[in-house]
Amino acid sequence: MDFITIQHASKRFSGVQALKDVSFSVVKGEVHGLIGENGSGKSTLIKILAGVLPADEGDITIEGKRITSYGPLTGIRHGISVIYQDISLFPNLTVRENILLGRVLEQNRKVFTKREYAERVTRILDDLGVVINQDELVGELPIAQQQLVAIARALNNESKLLILDEPTTALTRQEINQLFRLVNNLKSQGISVIFISHKLDEIQELCDSVTILRDGVVVASRSMADITLDEIENLMVGKSMIHERNVVERVSHEEVLAVKDLTKQNNFADISFTLERGEVLGIIGLLGSGRTELASALFGIAPADSGTIVIDGKEARIRSVEDAVEYGIAYVPEDRLTQGLVMSKSIKLNVAIATLDQYTNSLGLVDTSKIDTLADEWIAGMSIKTDTKEKVARMLSGGNQQKIVLSKWLAMGPKVLILDGPTVGIDIGAKAGIFTTINQMAKEKGMGVILISDETREITSHCHRVIIMRNGRFGRELVGDEIDDAVIQRELDEQKRVIAQNLS
Amino acid sequence: MKTRLNLLRNRETLLGITILVLLVVISLLSPSFMTYTNIVNLLKSFTVLGIFSLGVILVIISGGVDVSFTAIAQVVQYAVVYLFLNNMQGNVFLAFVLAIIMGTLMGLFNGYLIHRYKMPAIIITIATQNLFYGLMYVITKGQLIYVIPEYFWKISNTMLFKQVAPNGAVSGLSLTTVIWFALALVVALLLKFTVLGRSIYMMGGNPVAAQRIGVNSRNTTLFVYGSMGAIAGIGGIVHVSIVQTVIPNSIVGQELQVIAAVILGGASITGGKGSVLGTLLGVLLFAILSNSLTLLQISSYWYNVFTGFIILLSVFLNAMQEIQQQKQKIRVNVEAAS
Lengths: 504, 338
Description:
Structural class of chain A: alpha/beta
Radius of gyration of chain A: 24 Å
Helix content of chain A: 25-40%
Order of helices and strands of chain B: HHHHHHHHEEHHHHHHH
CATH architecture of chain B: Orthogonal Bundle
Number of helices of chain A: 17
CATH topology of chain B: ABC transporter involved in vitamin B12 uptake, BtuC
Strand order of the largest sheet of chain A: 6-7-8-3-9-10
Strand content of chain A: 25-35%
Number of domains of chain B: 1
CATH topology of the largest domain in chain A: Rossmann fold
Oligomer: heterodimer
Number of strands of chain A: 20
Largest sheet of chain A: 6 strands, mixed
Strand content of chain B: under 5%
Number of strands of chain B: 2
Largest sheet of chain B: 2 strands, antiparallel
Distance between the termini of chain B: 32 Å
Shape of chain B: globular
Radius of gyration of chain B: 22 Å
């Protein structure tokens, strides 16, 4: 039986058709995957389901009853809860309060005591199989546990449909396993789940059925058993592309970077490798394998405790980001929003910011016309979609933001470019554009590239050499023809299995 | 290890211990400190600051800030005393009612501007401080009022728990101090047990999440700044009852010290954190410090130096804890070398 059905829903925003005649339903007790590129209308659809946004037209039926007027509280009252990507909890309040306050507000109560709810909160957490101290402040919990608290809050509101908006982005594999077990547990209790993710393998692992959106239209809605990952991907993008092997020609075998015995306590140990000019080296590992920590150390954000880094034959002492930039290292972080961009500043300033001292006039003051030229060049070169270079970074989509971050570092002409999850949270179309530029820079300028990712196909498509990282150490190294999706996937699955085993 | 850390992390405990240590040291150095007379006088002299701090804690928990409350107190004080001297027959009860009404209105004006135009509270309240205070000066020409109705100073002269010293001097807990503590209790109960109180914490902790969960941000903002105004009004009346003269520039200028006491009490300037108990302890620490300097015959110029030092120290402690926690966090379970 369908829990919720939405029929012929459309939504326009000032001239843009966000959703067009969308029909979609979620069966009671199923996990339904919702995927699509950025801008495909996923978030609009969720907001309409949650009642945060009214649809221009369309009908919503919940448990067989047609809902005529649909406002923000209607969603909650009908048992629909959204776990937003930013989790939306109160870091300054305790676990217990975070769980119960939503309900207290919804019941329009004026006064409450913690005791009257304590038992209920305990029962919910027990049902979830979660061990958390209820008096702990939420801000002091790791992200994964915060997510569990958010789910507990939803259950306290007697949710029948839980919408999880990209819940796994910040979780380690171990935590993802736990989350998935929980989702399956909810499913067995008859609760429906809508699961949104960019990671197709997660969709495949967890979901019973899947709906794919493209440009505001449902292109397919099928049972998971009737569809393959390749089909999903093609349906999302609308054409078959990207993941054929696309490795650039090597220009030289000159060494640009040599790392020896790099160690940082509680982060990674005994890391040694070399990188040649024009080479694209892939480092793959699960979240928590130390891959991002290694990148932070190379870029001076959290310097290593011991070991040596040699750049162009000279030993580089990297103790800070300034040092790293001085030696010609550029870093595009995983979290572009907080680490890579000044969100409130224009595109042109963001592009110029790392190399500002090169655009000065004879007086040593910043020459804005030089910055304008630079910005125009990169906006064209990277095909950043914007009407003007004055637009502030916050206004752009994820993919375009990522392109700005990349432009900023490439404008510096780095010797070594470190890309950490360069395409996390951005769509396949934008991915292809980003890699074209990177490959071109590697080939023409002899830039060495370190590509860090947990997406197997991203790595296999572009790298000359791949190192698999695990538990803070380097493991197997694959060169040339050895680089193969299946081989890497097997290694990663093995790692996941070990983690799952240690957990149980 | 964990419990020790938690104990130090709890600002109230830390302040309590600091105050206890100070008390012991000072009473050893100066025998006149730990006397009933000295303690009740000390409490009385910090009552106005203490009352103000109860409004400021509300504002700061909500994620805002208010520097106009001293001007509100000043204006209310002047207006009420002036009205009672020239236009109407007054009494204590009416004085507080009028003060609360006027204070609330000025506070609501702040709250309205802050919510409606989403402008930084600091800017708005700097502006309204000058506006309120300036208008009062324009109208009154800054004239002092030396003679005030008797019932004003009766408030502070009313004493509870009286004790008579051998030389015949009477000392006791001033009614103004009782007002301070009663108000503290009200604010504490509000913050802890009402949905409105928790909404203030929610708004300060994560405004977006608060809105999604159904907190009415407009009403909460209006309530917070309105209460600040009302409390400032009460403070204005208490102040005139203690000082017994209306001096138009005697309150404005204290706002930073009040905010400092609240921050010292563990409130976070970014919002979401703080408690009435911490605020009380913060004010008490300041009070004891200033009093002991006097008793130990150290120049009062040193008071500011100590104040600054204590605030720096408390911020420093927080920062060190944070850094320590970051360092100990295990990011990756690094495999042992084989």
